Amino acid sequence: MKKIYIPLTKEQINRLKAGDEVLLTGTVYTARDQAHNRLTGAKKYPFDISGQVIYYCGPTKTPAGKIIGSCGPTTSSRMDAFTPALLAKGLRGMIGKGRRSQKVVDAIKKHKAVYFIAYAGCGALIAKYVKSAKLIAYKDLGPEAILRLHVQELPLIVAIDSRGRSIFK
């Protein structure tokens, strides 16, 4: 497995190929549909998006004594309408599950980004890789609020690389 660190650099992204298994360490931001809608309309983002990774995730309530509740991936295609604009602003990685539209694949190629998939159905297991979690924006959205997570060696698969190669073809 390749070890990858955030913020993502062009060199890291260029070395990745569709199908690579990686261990991701660093800060990721959770965001789902409603948060994406607000982000794309915002003049200023609640975090520096440049070189960053968004995890399509809406964690469950945090149990007592835990850092975060179950935090499995959300179906990525629900964010496809928003993704090209965020990639144009500097977003370099996304984590989710499932296929992406051709428009998103084209934007990934154009902006030299990467799309990772997380293991679906493993939200409780994925939570063990989260070392800290903090609400940073849109508290009113509940589980769709933006959280800043620090993950350590989160296992992922490169689904679409910066050249547009995909495990789905």
Provide an overview of this structure:
The structure is a single chain. With 169 residues, this protein is of the alpha/beta class. It has one domain (2-160): fumarase. The chain is built from five helices and seven strands. It has helices at 10-15, 33-41, 83-88, 102-111, 123-127; strands at 2-5, 21-30, 53-55, 93-96, 114-117, 130-137, 146-160. It has a five-stranded mixed barrel with strand order 2-3-4-5-7. Strand 6 (130-137) and strand 7 (146-160) form a beta hairpin. The protein is globular and about 45 Å long. It starts with a strand and ends in a 9-residue tail after the last strand. 38% of the residues are buried.
Shape: globular
- By DSSP, the count of extended strands is 7
CATH A-level architecture: Alpha-Beta Barrel
The sequence of SSEs as H and E is EHEHEHEHEHEE
- By secondary-structure content and strand pairing, the structural class works out as alpha/beta
Give the helix/strand layout.
Blueprint: E1 2-5, H1 10-15, E2 21-30, H2 33-41, E3 53-55, H3 83-88, E4 93-96, H4 102-111, E5 114-117, H5 123-127, E6 130-137, E7 146-160
Parallel strand pairs: 1-2, 2-3, 3-4, 4-5
Antiparallel strand pairs: 2-7, 5-7, 6-7
Key features of this structure:
169 residues, alpha/beta, 5-stranded mixed beta barrel, 7 strands, 28% strand, fumarase, 5 helices
Summarize the structure.
This protein has helices spanning 10-15, 33-41, 83-88, 102-111, 123-127, and strands at 2-5, 21-30, 53-55, 93-96, 114-117, 130-137, 146-160.
